[in-house]
Amino acid sequence: MVASAAVFWRIAFRNVWRQRTKSLIVGFILFLCTGLIVFGNALVDAVDAGMEKSVTQSVSGHLQVYSAEARDALSVFGDEYGSMPDIGVIPDFAALAAAVRKVENVRAIVPMGINFAMGQSGNELDRWLATLRQAVREGDPARIAERRDEVRAVCERLLQELQNTRDVAAADSAIAQDIEQARRAASPEFWAGFDADPLGSLEFLENKVAPLEAAMSELWLQFLGTDLDAFAQNFDRFEIVEGTAVPKGQRGFLMNHGFYEEAVKHRVARELDKMKKLRAEGASFESDADLRSRRDQLPTQYRRVLYQLDRKASADLTQRLRALLGTPDTALPDLLQSFLKVDDANFDARYAFFYEHVAPQLQLYAAKVGDVIPLQGYTKSGYSKSINVKVYGTFRFKGLEDSDIGKMFNLVDLVTFRDLYGMMTPERRAEVQALREQAGVKDVKREDAEAALFGEAAPAIERQVETAEIDELAGLAKVARGEANQAFDPAELERGVALNAAVVLADPTRLHETKAAIEAALKDAGLKMQVIDWQAASGMVGMLVVVARGVLWVIIFVLLIVAAVVINNSMVIATMERVKEIGTMRAIGAGRGWIRRLFLAETAMLGLVSGGLGAACAAGAVVLWGRVGLPAPNAFMQFLFGGPRLHPWFESGHLVSALVIILLFALISTLYPAALASRVSPRAAMASDG
Amino acid sequence: MLRALSLLLLLAALPLPASAQLSAEEMKALLGRIDDRQRNTGDYKALAYIEQREKNKNDVFFETVFYRRDNSEQFLILFLKPKTEAGKGYLRIEKNLWMYDPATGKWERRTERERIGGTNSRSQDFDPLYLARDFEHEYKGKEKLGQFDVHHIKLTLKPGAKAPDPIIELWIDEKTENTLKQQDFALSGRLMRTAYYPKWEKVFSESKKAEVYYPKEIRIFDEVEKENRTTVLIDKVDLRPLEPNIFTKAWLEAKSR
Fold this sequence. Notes:
A: alpha+beta, 56% helix, B: outer membrane lipoprotein receptor (LolB), chain A
């Protein structure tokens, strides 16, 4: 029996070897498929885990809870249009938190809400004038004098700029008028009279002169309102970069460091930073279109430097730039434009010069740590709301520093978030209703409008009235300016609304059972909420891993089909070539089953060897890359990888499943040729020429 | 939809002789007279209630005071109620649009795209229209609007002229010569808005030495977002001179602080 088996396998091996060209082709395909299954799955598993880390440890937690009556599905990174979905509200976060905290395996529940606000608008001269207006309000003569001199210097530079524009462009009456306004603003007579009428002078400067400086900008901030302490404790990737955390019980804003560097930083500085980064990645002005475009735009931004410089800084920088550029008589605007003309040869020196001599003279960040910034937006109630809030620090999500998604959110305390979100409270609703009744406004619907307004019952169109006295200011409620560092009772964080809540689990591997337990607890508590996992909460981003795994299996399936066709054809041809041999075997007593098994054994042998080799090579590559790490080629991949490098790991399960799949496919594709071979009769073999 | 407020300034109408059909000359003369009324000299102050209903949003309701000095590009909108809005204001001086919120004590320069008070109104809605000078006119016919006989006129913006909407259709009451209905169209011909002016009041202006007409009630229906509608009720109008320094930041700051 053993001897017979040995003969069987020897014959099978001999056949594989004798047809080694065909075996090599088939074996290579099987090698490729097995390797791809092992390596591809390890890669997708690692991306899945990396993304899970990125998402769960930065903003979403393992599970998200939000209103069951939400109009849209929750997506913490926004929907496919880049806007934030309408997810309704959690009216009483305390009740929700109490129900969820009772569920075993829940480590924490963190209230959240996402919103936008505008942080700043206008141009550099507007900002100078705002500081002068503030000094005038405060009535501090020394500060007024200091600010006044700086504004005057900016006006002088503006006049010079406009005159240069007139010299190079066709003079028209608009430029002449602009120059006339700037000339007045730069004149000694205007400033001599400033103290006599500071407010009138400011109105002139703000409305006539500031618009002449064209470089307007707006700073929009996307922020996530939350319990900042709970957020810091439960999101492992969160860390403060500059400044401090917001003290407990204080209103405060934390700027995302990536956003701070890319949107809040001075435009010229961040363009230089970006160019430095691109060059460090191997790009050059000659070879890279993006870099060239940035280089060509940079000199046009010189006014953003020019109008931020005070008198002393202007004089100092003029001297330094003249020395650097070797042009002793050139004026500062031209010097700055020349300085900002960079190329591969001078870039590093210009970059260093900028940070050594120019940046210290600028307001390098539109809002910096320690500043109080106004946040202004439109609330859910439909009304606008503005709040002054202090920027305590900047933060980042570790490992996601360069990822756009990691830079998406700033953070603000939940109390400020609620104010800016501005739910329609019962009190406010009652006030609006009383106002509506006072005015006597009746709602008219579109479909009834013409009949209601101009029908038979319509009153006379016209009537005579007397001019009225309107004493609007008597009843004008006085509004206290909000203090930026207003304290609040930390217990307030639990009371009141949130839009969604992140649930952080003690053991993330029990996600699905915990999700079910939370759903049951919410139902028992009578709360109309829905619970989704981090992948669903990531929206389109979360679907990427599912799509990646799908694409991988489509590729593998196509390869397997190709392999099956090749194996089938090879074996059919082999059967034709081996008719005489098969017939002889049949003549000396080999049954049909034996022949069938021989063919299957040949394929199994080939499948095991090539599949095993493919799996081993892939496993080796996985282990190696797991140690070295696969670098993220861009910011988005950094987010998917959960950090700057992806570290895949070897799973024996993938190896076993790959081998089983390969063997199955190979054997199935041999069934037909094996059946064909088993039907060869000894007589047919003797009749054949081969 | 404070856009409607600007119409208070534009539609101070003098009665015109009634006629069955308008010839091109009569039509142009009518629009010319409306343009003349738009250039009414003197100051203007109105206490107005504004209600805006938008799809999927809470209704908003404001009590406001609107100040304007004619022959200048200045206006000021001061919000009085609800109390969360008290003291907020928009100040336009020439091409500058400023927003003030007493809660922060800061002035923000806003662009022409700004939604005034979060409504659908933009700054340019407050610029006067020059119907005779800036538009081509087409008489569409005599029609009935409810119980009223009206002239239906189509206006198309001339090349190079500026207005918020390039095509306007007006329905003007034959008897009183007040505009009862206005439709605004995009260049493509798409209907954007329908406004109704069912009540008009006239008040004597000392500066003009004549009566000024203003719509007491304005109903505006958004034709793109069909569920959105705005109602403006003018409660009182005061045509006496305003304080000289009213269109300044200092004035609003002092009043609302």
